[in-house]
Amino acid sequence: MRQWQINSLDGIDALERVDVDRPEPGPGEIRLRVHASSINYRDLSTIRDPASRNLPLPRVPNSDAAGEVTAIGAGVEGIAVGDRVASCFFGDWQDGPCSAAIMATALGGARDGVLAEEVVLAARGVVPLPDHLDYVAGSTLTCAGLTAWNALFRAARIRAGDTVLLLGTGGVSVFALQFAVLAGARVIMTSSSDEKLARVRDMGAWQTVNYRTNPDWDKAVLDLTGGVGVDAVVEVGGAGTLERSIAATRVAGTVVLIGVLTGGEINPVNIMRKSIRVQGIYGGSRNMFLDMNRAISHHRLEPVIHQRFGFESARDAYHAMAAAGHFGKLVIDVSD
After folding, report:
1. What is the pTM of this model?
2. In 10 A of CB 83, how many CB atoms?
3. I need a labelling partner for 316 at 20 to 30 A (CA). Which of 38, 99, 271, 289 fits?
């Protein structure tokens, strides 16, 4: 059975494709034939710097998988061989708040990930795929999809008529655009590409701002909202963009911090002065995943796939992530 492993500290090109024995599920586990695995910035950063995460090597990367159940361990109920399922980012997060114990069950980090032809997962750590989605589309839901859902509907609690600011056009931001539009929110979206901004307007974005031609994009957002600011920001940049996100947010609004793509420092004064809530999140629970999938099924939402890569070309997928030119998701087709 083929599997990709992080075996050194030397980055993407040091990833190794190895042959290992087919795993067998134990009590409470299932074996999954992985058909597709989407990648996230977190996967790229793990491959680049496993030492900072104190990961034992070798480590299988990636949290996101969609596939078919091929075997079931003792005591598993409610799942049958042949079921189409997606992995949960945290194998032990069923509901309620996150915890240190839950964080220790993250796939592709604390635990081996899913970039392999078959993997063994906890039965309570998978969810059924929406019927209308194929495996490639279904593999995008685990991290980016659920993070966007959690950010909008649990952390920010957006409602119809709210105004939401989204940064960039990566996987989380594009999912957040789709969900926010379905909820009746007004979306302002930023990018350095006019072509990408035209595309998000076609998808329902209310207003757009090119941050390359408008480096003071927070002021542009304030102008678009009549000086009031947005109700919520899905903040994927980190310290390098957070101060501008705070400036663009209304008094008593919410900034949901999910990314650390840019460096820098943050002055907390405006958080206090504007009574803004800054909420960090990391993925979501299995029950959130089930809620999201019901909405996806009801609206027959289709995730946006930028590019597919064959299994043997996995390194190319991570290089594409590093190049940051994608719109939506990058997916490794494990069956290819």
Report:
1. 0.96
2. 17
3. 289
Round to the nearest angstrom and report the end-to-end CA distance of the chain: 14
Residue closest to 114 by CA, chosen among 332, 329, 336: 332
Residue 68 lies in a domain: yes
Q: Is 279 exposed, middle or buried (0-12, 13-18, 19+ CB in 10 A)?
A: middle
Nearest CA among 106, 128, 108, 111 for reference residue 32: 128
Q: Which domain holds residue 45?
A: 2-140+303-333
* CATH code, domain with 204: 3.40.50.720
Consecutive 10-residue averages of pLDDT for the chain (336 residues): 96 97 98 98 95 92 98 97 98 95 95 98 98 98 98 98 97 98 98 97 98 96 98 90 95 91 73 95 96 98 98 98 96 92
263, 298, 271: which is closest to 183 by C-alpha? 298
What's the CA gap between 113 and 4, in Å, rounded? 9
